[in-house]
Each structure stands twice: as C-alpha cells, then as structure tokens.
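Lecture notes, continued. The same structure-token format from the folding unit now serves as the input rather than the output. Read the line below as a description of shape only.
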C-alpha cells in the first residue's frame, strides 16, 4: 500500500477557505474499513493516525489496526497525537517543576535547554488553589482571592516564568473559572486548523489533560480524557500517547426524563448503572440513541464529566445539532460554527437519527425515564441513593458508626449534640450537614441546575425559611457566566439570603479546599463524636477528601444542596417529612419549593445568551491587579530557591545517565502498607489540609512556616519534601497492618508502629525495597501523579493489587514502579498473606514482555514460604520500555539528549 492510499489527503473549499482534509471515506474506498460501522470515537482515532502517518512514529500497521476495529481492540497498541493539552495548577505546578528540572539536565549535557519545550498548544488554568476561608458575606470572594495570592504567590511566580519559558504554554490566571468549564465554553474548537508549509490543515479537536475530569469535553464531541501529569508532560514534549486500541461500549439512551429529575440525577444513575453492569476500565463509552434529543449540551457535559466515576476513559457524545447550538450559545464565531458542521458532516462525525447504528464491543440500553431524584454517598460516587431511601440508608451508616465507636470505647451521644449559636441552643443531630457547597466542574456551568438552585432558594426565602446555623454554605461556580445570569434573573439575592454567596471561581470544596468548619461544629465533632456530613454538587466524595472531619459526604444537584442546607441534616426523608416550618407554623415540603422544568427552561431562554459568554471570555488571560503586577523570573532555566517550602528541584533525575540501568529482580522487600478495595489516589496522596502533627506539618514548622500558613498538600505539590511526607497520610486511610486510621504502619524489623514516612526512611537507610499490597480498583479517583511519585520517593518498587484503575496504573509505570496483578480468584486473603513476610519478585532480570507472569516468594517470620504468580501490568512494549528506563520522563529525556548530542557530533 502506498503512502497516498493511507493518507487520503484532499484540498477542499470550506466555509473558511481552502483546507486540507484527511478524508476517512477515501480509506473506505481503498478497502481499509467501512466507516459507518465504526464508533464515532474510533473514527476520530482513525483520522488521527491517518493524518500523522509518517512511517516511523505512526506506521502503516497503526493505520490498518485502527481501520480494522474491532479486531485488535483491547490488545493492540496505537499512537495517539492529541491536538492540545490542558492542566490545572495542582497538576501544572509539578509538571512545570519536572520540565524545569529536565532543562537543567539538558544544560548539564551541553544541550540547549530549549530542547525541552511544549510541542502542542497547552493551557494551564489556575483554579485549584482558592479555599473557602470566608463565606456567608458579600466580600467572601475578595477575601478568599486575597488569601490565595498571599499564600501562593511563589507558585504563581513559577507559572508566570513557565509562560514565558515554554513556547506553546498559556496560563489562565486565578479567578477566571474552573479548568473544564473554561475548556468547554471557550478553548474547545471541536474542529481545529493549523498551517504546515503554507497549507491549512483541518482536523478534529482532541485534548489530553492532567486532570481526570478532562472527559467533560466529550459532551460536545471533542475526544479527550485525563492522564497522569507524567504522561501529559511527555505528550507536551512531542511524545505520542501510546494507548491500547479501546473496546467501545455503546450506551443507547431511550426515554424522556421525568418532571423534577435533574441532569445530576441522570449522571448519578448512569454512574451506578455502568459500574454495576459492565467492566468499563480502559474502555470508551459512547452515547447515542433517541434519548439524546432530551439532553442539552450542558447535560451531556455533566454526564461526560463523570466518566472517571463510572470507570471509563471517555463518556463521548458525537457532534450533532445540539453541539452546534451550544457553540452558538457560548459566543463562538458563526463562520467557525458553519465550518464545524461542514467538516464533521464530510468526515462522518456528525450524528443524526438517520445514521446507521455503529458496531460496538458491548451494547447497553439506558432508559432516561427510569431516573429518579437521588444523591450519592457516603463515600463513593457510584453509591447512588434515591431520595425516598436516603433516610433509611443513612440510618444504616449511622448504626455502623455507633458500633465502631462502642468497640473503641467511645461515649458518643445517640441523639446528637447540643450546640449554641449566637446565644441560642440547638440540638444538632448526627448526620448534621456541616458543609453545603454548590461547587465543582460537574454541575456549576449547567444553567438547568444553577438557575434551578436559585429558584429553590427564592421559593424557600419567600416561605420564610433559612439555613441551619451549623451549615457552612458556599457557591463556587466553575464559570463566571453563571454569576452574570444569576444576577440578571434576580436569583443571586435569594441564594445570598441563604448564605450561598460567591466564595471563588475554582474547584474549592470538591478538591478539599473547603476551609475550616464552623468552630462550634468542629469542637462537637472532635470532643463529642458528632457524625457530620457534607453535601456538595461535585463528582468526588471519598472519605477524607471534602474535609477531614466529615464522615459522610454526599453528591447532589445544586438544587438539593440548597435544600439540605435548609434542613441541616442528611437524616431526612424528603418525600414524607417537611423541610422546615414557615413563621406561621405551616410545614414546607421539598415539593413546595421545587421549580418546574418549564420554569427553569423559560429563564434559560430569557437570560442565557451569547453576549454573556463573549463579555466574560474577552479578557480570559488578563488577571487581577495582583496577578498583573506579580514579578516572575525570566530566562530558559528556572532559578531554584533552596529555602522555598513551595518549589524545590525534584530528585527524580539525580544520577541521570544516558544509558538506563538494567532492571533487576526485587529481593528482600517489605510491605509498607496493606490496603483493601477502592483505595483512591486521595488515600495515597491527599490534597486536603496538612495537619501540624503530621510528618509534612513538622517539616514545614522546622522550616519556619506557621500552621495557619500550611495551606493544603495540593498547593505544595511543587515540593517533594512535603509530598513524600504526605504519601499514605490521608486521615481516613485504613492500613490493614495496624489497628488505627491514618498514615501509620509497622516497621517490621522492630515491630514498632510509626508513620508511613518514618518507616519508609528507616527502610531506605537499610537499602530494603518496599511493596504495597491492595485489593480491587487500586488508584481510583483523580489523575494524581503524586500518588505514584510519592511511593517512588518512599522506596516502593512494586504494587500488588487485584485490579488497577487506568490512570493510576499508567502513572506507576510512568514512575518506574511495577504494577503487579494477582491471578484471577487470588488476593492477599486467599493466599494467606499477612504483610509481615519478606518478598522476592522473580523474573524481572531475565527480561520483561507485556503482561509477563512473575513469581512471588513470600517468607513468613516462622520460615513458612508462600509462592504465587502475578501478572506484570506492563500492557504493551512501550510500557516495558518506559519501565526499563525507570519511567517515561527518563525515556523521553534520554532520547532528546542523545538526539542533541548526535546533532552536535555531526556539526563538528
């Protein structure tokens, strides 16, 4: 086959002039495929390999592999070249730190440090640092942003340096919105163009993000997903994203949502449905069917956003008329919208009901009319609870809490705790809502639920209701457009009357930046064992994430967040019990303050317009006065400050050599932690507050930082000294080796119980390698590269688990940690592993290959020997190569420096 057969490039007249298009139907004419049978996501991958085919990085075999889908799905590896990359500041700071350190290494070898540069457009949105320190007042936003700059000025200097140092990197300053809203409302093009040798190339927009909820962009037909920061760095440097050709689950949407059901209810139901009915990890999910017409692009984005929660790489909605309507509504250029339609129709990427149904690896049907009002909790997004069952389910959770407290000898009052607020005493029940937060990327740019929340507040205020005094309320919308239309509708005043003032434009409560609780509540939790909860309109509710002191965390629509702030407890049946009583003693039920769908739609039509989006996004790159005046270093190399507690040069490239050391067997390893199922990256590398008595807190105090200035682990990801001390330090992590929650373990040589960090440092001094043993779905949650970097710095060489979540497994490989999977039907319990054994992992030194079986020998103190096999989850030859190089960044850096030195040699 000739190159021209594969490339199939044509110059065509388009609404924006002449463009070059890599025609998918030409590949069909060449006999390579039948386009109509391919899922829309696979069509995008096919265009990608056809356009990037060069015979080297992308080969003829790669093109044939994708064109032959479903053959090779779930098995064969393909290179994917995303159009652009996106990061937020929690992931962006460590990425920039890594790139800066790589530049130092390049310079040490005599190379121009600018060989380390961004090869594709990249945007870094600062949205994860602001915290809810102030709330309930009209100046909360100003004060929180003021505190943010005071705390994190040093990190922001680094990011301003990066913007001038790296060619294709743009930084969106603080206060502009959440990463995924900015992406979908402004950055996304759906169809992109670029000039190469004077020729304008047209191609599908695609994005790789250092945040797991990058999947939100799939709601408007842009293929994108989250990866580990390590992988995103490599892609930014020009490396392909190597992936297994995915199996695609087709979810046919049928039926029409019932009155009163919100997009949040729909996504919680879909999350539960997919987790229960199919294995989604490593697969794409693609939505289609007659039910699509009942979902606005905002609703689709809500569903796409939570793909990590239902476990898939994507939750994709193809481009259709609703996509075009969204582009118009959000103020995109009409000519560009016409171009998007022209290109997607030409390339068979435009969905209509008349299109042939594609083939899918698995087909499922989901009935939108079956969805009922729900929340999810207390600890996982797929733990959906219908509102009518909410009280019953909470009582079951509370019973377990009492049982555990009794076992520990704690005297917890059964009815709740008496607390005084402003001189008045209240009986605060177990289940008390300590935090009610309208927050996160999932819901807070969807006008249906945001205007809906405003209407709930309006009706409640009109009935004389108020929030309970123990509830900390906050509104942190992901898009500044939300504030504009809430003001224009007059709904802001009602939200503020209930304490829902705007506290910031950022991830905030959902990432754990919820700030301190109301002091009396915090005291009741610590001293009397009050079971406190949070209700948030987010996508993550893992224990210890939202706030260290809330034991139950519930995901809900913004409308229900307002309702629970009024009720003040999760221990409530919204269908049969009043939310409260008005001043006349009349009961007010949830149904009395719940707006109709027609009310909400009417307001959307009247107040949400393209002009709002144009107004908000015209100055997206211009920051506040503090940002504009912030002085930052310049030059190609970053000037490291050894005294900084925020930014430190990472040790990952110390002792770097041009040739990698040969991998060896892991001999004499000890178990650092033994964990159960559903251990999240929040458990491994927390993002929340840093306790003063923790190893990280002690380190900061030793370096002159006051506890009030600690901030969060997430904000200090540019300092490996803090992050390695925070690894496995989540207050709710349960290490099965010890009888307490939190970051503790046994140091086996002496039997002492100590912090994980202290034990790891002792093992390191003795040259003893470490392993982690875990259950199912290890590494669920955020795409947190520090959940791999931290264990690496502690000395962890391998993780043995029953199964891994996609992004975290890739991150482990990217850091040179070996992910090992128990054989089917086996786990630590069935094998009789207790954690006190000494482990040898045999078969690495003789050579690795994808999914090679290795032998593990575990020796107990009494001499008993347990032998078993595991599968090395290096899933393809590229990952084997990364592991051999001790990680992906070492692999990329070696290749770049070798290329540089070869060129210098030829120049001589």
């Amino acid at each position: 086959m000739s190159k021209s057969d594969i490339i199939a490039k044509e110059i065509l007249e388009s609404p924006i002039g002449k463009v070059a298009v890599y025609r998918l139907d030409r590949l069909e004419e060449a006999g390579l495929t039948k386009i109509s049978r391919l899922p829309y996501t696979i069509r995008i991958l096919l265009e990608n390999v056809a356009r990037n085919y060069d015979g080297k990085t992308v080969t003829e075999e790669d093109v044939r592999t994708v064109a032959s889908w479903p053959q090779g799905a779930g098995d064969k590896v393909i290179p994917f070249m995303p159009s652009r990359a996106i990061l937020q500041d929690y992931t962006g700071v460590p990425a920039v730190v890594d790139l800066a350190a790589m530049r130092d290494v390049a310079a040490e070898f005599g190379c121009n440090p600018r060989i380390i540069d961004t090869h594709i457009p990249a945007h870094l949105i600062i949205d994860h640092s602001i915290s809810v320190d102030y709330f309930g007042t009209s100046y909360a936003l100003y004060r929180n942003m003021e505190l943010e700059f005071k705390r994190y000025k040093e990190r922001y200097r680094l990011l301003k340096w990066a913007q001038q140092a790296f060619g294709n990197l743009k930084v969106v300053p603080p206060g502009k919105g959440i990463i995924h809203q900015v992406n979908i409302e402004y950055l996304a093009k759906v169809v992109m163009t670029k000039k190469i040798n004077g020729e304008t190339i047209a191609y599908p927009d695609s994005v790789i993000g250092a945040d797991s909820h990058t999947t939100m962009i799939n709601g408007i037909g842009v293929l994108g997903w989250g990866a580990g920061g390590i992988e995103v760095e490599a892609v930014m440097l020009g490396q392909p994203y190597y992936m297994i050709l995915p199996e695609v689950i087709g979810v046919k949407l049928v039926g029409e949502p019932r009155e009163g059901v919100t997009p949040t209810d729909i996504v919680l139901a879909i999350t539960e449905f997919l987790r229960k009915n199919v294995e989604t990890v490593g697969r794409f999910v693609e939505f289609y069917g007659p039910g699509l017409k009942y979902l606005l692009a905002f609703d689709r984005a809500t569903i796409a956003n939570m793909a990590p929660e239902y476990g898939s790489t994507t939750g994709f909605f193809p481009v259709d008329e609703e996509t075009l309507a969204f582009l118009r509504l959000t103020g995109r250029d009409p000519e560009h919208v016409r171009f998007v339609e022209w290109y997607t129709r030409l390339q068979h990427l435009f969905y209509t009901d008349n299109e042939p149904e594609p083939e899918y690896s698995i087909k499922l049907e989901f009935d939108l009319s079956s969805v009922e009002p729900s929340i999810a909790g207390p600890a996982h997004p797929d733990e959906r609870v219908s509102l009518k069952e909410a009280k019953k389910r909470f009582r079951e959770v509370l019973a377990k809490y009492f049982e555990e407290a009794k076992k520990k000898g704690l005297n917890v009052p059964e009815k709740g705790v008496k607390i005084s607020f402003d001189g008045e005493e209240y009986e605060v029940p177990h289940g008390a809502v300590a935090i009610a937060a309208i927050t996160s990327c999932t819901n807070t740019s969807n006008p249906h639920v945001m205007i809906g929340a405003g209407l709930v507040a309006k009706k409640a205020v009109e009935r004389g209701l108020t929030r309970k005094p123990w509830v900390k309320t906050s509104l942190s919308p992901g898009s500044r457009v939300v504030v504009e239309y809430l003001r224009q509708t007059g709904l802001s005043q009602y939200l503020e009357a209930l304490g829902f003032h705007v506290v910031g434009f950022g991830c905030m409560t959902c990432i754990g930046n919820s700030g301190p609780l109301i002091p009396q509540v915090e005291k009741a939790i610590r001293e009397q064992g009050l079971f406190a909860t949070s209700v948030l309109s987010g996508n993550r509710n893992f224990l210890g994430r939202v706030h260290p002191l809330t034991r139950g965390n519930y995901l809900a629509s913004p409308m229900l967040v307002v309702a629970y702030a009024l009720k003040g407890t999760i221990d409530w049946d919204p269908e049969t019990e009043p939310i409260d009583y008005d001043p006349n003693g009349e009961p007010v039920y949830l149904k009395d303050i719940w707006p109709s769908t027609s009310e909400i739609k009417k307001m959307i039509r009247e107040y949400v317009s393209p002009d709002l989006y144009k107004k908000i996004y015209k100055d997206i790159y211009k920051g506040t006065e503090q940002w504009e005046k912030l002085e930052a270093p310049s030059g190609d190399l970053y000037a490291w400050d050894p005294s900084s507690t925020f930014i430190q040069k990472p040790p990952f490239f110390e002792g770097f050599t041009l040739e990698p050391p040969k991998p060896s067997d892991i001999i004499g390893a000890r178990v650092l932690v033994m964990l159960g199922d559903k251990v999240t990256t929040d458990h491994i590398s927390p993002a929340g507050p840093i306790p003063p008595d923790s190893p990280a807190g002690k380190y900061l105090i030793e370096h002159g930082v006051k506890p009030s200035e600690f901030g969060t682990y997430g904000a200090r990801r540019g300092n490996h000294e803090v992050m390695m001390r925070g690894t496995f330090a989540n207050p709710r992590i349960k290490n099965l080796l010890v009888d307490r929650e939190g970051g503790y373990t046994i140091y086996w040589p002496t039997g002492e119980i100590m912090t994980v960090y202290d034990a790891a440092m002792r093992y390191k001094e003795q040259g003893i390698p470490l392993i982690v043993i875990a259950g199912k779905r290890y590494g669920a949650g955020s795409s947190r590269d520090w959940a791999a970097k931290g264990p690496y710095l502690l000395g962890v060489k391998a993780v043995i688990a029953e199964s891994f979540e996609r992004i975290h497994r890739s991150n482990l490989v990217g850091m040179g940690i070996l992910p090992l999977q128990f054989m089917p039907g086996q786990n630590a319990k069935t094998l009789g592993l207790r954690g006190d054994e000494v482990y040898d992992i045999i078969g690495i030194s003789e050579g690795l290959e994808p999914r090679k079986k290795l032998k593990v020998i575990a020796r107990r103190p009494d001499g008993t020997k347990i032998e078993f096999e595991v599968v090395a989850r290096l899933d393809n030859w590229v990952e084997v190569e990364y592991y051999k190089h001790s990680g992906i960044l070492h692999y990329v850096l070696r290749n770049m420096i070798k290329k540089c030195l070869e060129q210098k040699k030829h120049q001589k």
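Point for the exam: The first helix runs from residue 3 to 7.
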